[in-house]
């Protein structure tokens, strides 16, 4: 019931940003207060009761529910950003995307050694972004407690890359 409601707020956009990619557009989900609130509750559900010191959100769509999750779990929120956006000393990690390559960066002092970290993003596709995120958090001394996603593209099997971690996705395609 809830899943159908959320699903109706995600639109398929064919051939974006490249031919052959069916882009899952979460804009309608963001626009609806009710859909945001249900989605946040479903994301929180699997990690409630676990120690989560920090929610890490991946630029840019991982920031959106990432902040709501951090609020709901009473945790710190930290950004993983694309290159050149964060000031000061940074740690970086290159990765491959479903449609290209990119780099993630983290501020050196953003994670304290031993912090229990939940990594959040809107979509799990190839898993390249997710595994890079885990690597960068570990470089900083954080303990990755798991991942959650609004959408998991099962047919790409990105979860294989992060199979050693707890993974919770609201919707599967
Ligand atoms: O599992 P993967 O194959 O690595 O793909 C998933 C990533 O791709 C998208 O980000 P994108 O780089 O398009 O950035 P955006 O959030 O700024 O649109 C999505 O938001 C995830 O971060
Ligand atoms: N098909 C897709 N839709 C939305 N975001 C994505 N990120 C990677 N693949 C994606």
Automatic annotation (TrEMBL):
Record-level Gene Ontology MF annotations: adenine binding; adenine phosphoribosyltransferase activity; AMP binding
Q: Top-level EC class, please?
A: transferase
Question: Is NADP found in the keyword set?
Answer: no
User: What EC designation does it have?
Assistant: 2.4.2.7
Matching InterPro entries, A to Z?
Ade_phspho_trans, PRTase-like, PRTase_dom, UPRTase/APRTase
- Swiss-Prot/TrEMBL keywords: Cytoplasm, Glycosyltransferase, Purine salvage, Transferase
One GO BP annotation of this record: adenine salvage
Please state every residue range assigned to the domain named Phosphoribosyltransferase: 46-144
GO cellular component labels: cytoplasm
Primary localization class, coarse: cytoplasm
Cell compartments where the protein resides:
Cytoplasm
Q: Which top-level group of life is the source organism from?
A: Bacteria
Question: Is Nucleotidyltransferase there in the keyword field?
Answer: no
State the pathway, as annotated in the record. Answer: Purine metabolism; AMP biosynthesis via salvage pathway; AMP from adenine: step 1/1
Q: Which reaction does it catalyse?
A: AMP + diphosphate = 5-phospho-alpha-D-ribose 1-diphosphate + adenine
Instruction: State the oligomer form and interacting partners.
Output: Homodimer.
Family designation: Belongs to the purine/pyrimidine phosphoribosyltransferase family.
Provide the function of this protein: Catalyzes a salvage reaction resulting in the formation of AMP, that is energically less costly than de novo synthesis.
Q: What is this protein called?
A: Adenine phosphoribosyltransferase
**What organism is recorded for this protein?**
Nonlabens ulvanivorans (Persicivirga ulvanivorans)
Annotated gene:
apt
């Amino acid at each position: 019931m809830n899943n159908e409601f959320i699903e109706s707020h995600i639109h398929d956009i064919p051939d974006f940003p490249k031919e052959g990619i069916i882009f899952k557009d979460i804009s309608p989900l963001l626009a609806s207060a009710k859909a945001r609130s249900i989605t946040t509750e479903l994301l929180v559900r699997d990690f409630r009761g676990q120690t989560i010191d920090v929610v890490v959100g991946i630029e840019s769509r991982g920031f959106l529910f990432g902040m709501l999750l951090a609020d709901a779990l009473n945790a710190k929120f930290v950004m993983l950003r694309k290159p050149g956006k964060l000031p000061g000393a940074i740690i970086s990690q290159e990765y491959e995307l479903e449609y290209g390559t990119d780099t993630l960066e983290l501020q050196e002092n953003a994670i304290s050694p031993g912090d229990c970290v939940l990594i959040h993003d809107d979509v799990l596709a190839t898993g390249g972004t997710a595994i890079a995120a885990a690597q960068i958090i570990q470089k900083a001394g954080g303990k990755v407690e798991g991942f959650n996603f609004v959408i998991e593209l099962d047919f790409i099997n990105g979860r294989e890359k992060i199979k050693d971690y707890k993974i919770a996705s609201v919707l599967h395609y």
